[in-house]
Inverse folding.
């Protein structure tokens, strides 16, 4: 299971991020300040870090400097209620991969992770997706052998290609289904 670290002094942000990440297959650890976060980073490896800029004891910017200074190249997403161009530039220069402004929604988080090609699938992993794909394909094959003119075959193929985000192919199968349904 992938691991994420959330370093934020706002309890509700930690709770929301933890729930969203757990649904997406991450195990999430939390820290309420920069010092706690650095201790966790010394003990564990993470696949993703969420880091608030304004933290008690040790600022998020200082934490990011120390993370990079230790050679830790884990993707860091900055979260802040006080966005400034100066902060954004400095954090980007230090290697932050994205910047989330508080308050944010689960949908905004999802979009941010997807833009970074990080999985946020609200449950399930690639093996489950492949298994579903194989089941659908087997179903289509059996239906095709029984009756190649069955419109439902093409409807299922359209669904499969939509799920794979191959919309042009999906549209072709929808058109065939519509013709056969006449």
């Amino acid at each position: 299971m992938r691991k994420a670290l959330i370093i934020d002094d706002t309890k509700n942000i930690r709770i929301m991020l933890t729930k969203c990440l757990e649904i997406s297959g991450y195990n999430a650890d939390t820290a309420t300040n920069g010092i706690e976060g650095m201790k966790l980073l010394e003990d564990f490896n993470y696949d993703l870090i969420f880091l608030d800029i304004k933290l008690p004891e040790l600022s998020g910017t200082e934490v990011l400097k120390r993370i990079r200074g230790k050679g830790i190249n884990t993707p860091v997403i900055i979260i802040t209620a006080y966005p400034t161009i100066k902060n954004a530039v400095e954090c980007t220069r230090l290697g932050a991969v994205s910047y989330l402004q508080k308050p944010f929604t689960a949908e905004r988080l999802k979009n941010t992770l997807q833009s970074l090609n990080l999985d946020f699938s609200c449950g399930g992993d690639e093996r489950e997706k492949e298994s579903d794909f194989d089941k659908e394909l087997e179903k289509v094959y059996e239906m095709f052998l029984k009756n190649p003119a069955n419109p439902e075959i093409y409807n299922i193929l359209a669904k499969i290609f939509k799920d794979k985000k191959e919309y042009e192919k999906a549209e072709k199968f929808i058109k065939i289904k519509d013709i056969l349904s006449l």
User: Anything to note?
Assistant: The chain has two domains: 2-115, 126-181. Strands lie at 2-7, 26-31, 48-52, 76-80, 98-101. The first strand starts at residue 2 and ends at 7.
